[in-house]
Amino acid sequence: MQPWRFVVVRDPEVKRRIREAAEEEERTFYEQRAPEEWLDALAPLGTDWRKEFLETAPCLIVVFRIDYGIDPRSDGASRRIKHYYVTESVGIACGFLLAALHIAGLATLTHTPSPMAFLASILERPKNEKPYLLIPVGFPAPDAVVPAITKKALDEIRVAV
Length: 161
Fold this sequence. Notes:
- The protein has helices spanning 12-33, 36-42, 53-56, 86-103, 117-122, 154-157, and strands at 4-9, 59-66, 68-72, 78-82, 107-108, 129-138.
- It is α+β, with helices and mostly antiparallel strands.
- It has one domain (4-157): NADH Oxidase (3-Layer(aba) Sandwich), CATH 3.40.109.
- The mean pLDDT is 93.
């Protein structure tokens, strides 16, 4: 059923509006909603509520999950079409997209400001589409620094039976 929509944003004014709305949500998250344990987990990444990359990235891809389809009828009415495995399907589609962008030599960042309803509003999406993921895309800046993140050992993530 392909319950996803990829909205590609290149317009500087729209990117500015997205940044402002995301920073407002993120500021509230960092200053009021996030438990100290969560902030401690984020500390090694060096992140905060400022999200200038949302405006400087050449492109933003906003992924929406489509919770249900809409089948217009000839009489002007419409009916809902149930979508199954929406979260799983959209997650898999995002994984393929991120891998393809990486193979193409582009840098990405998965960004999930919470809540994300502002994205549906700014991008004028219908009510059956809900924001899932925001992906800034471009070439890395010459001074870009990727945090050193240790990965779990294979034995910690794999169970052989």
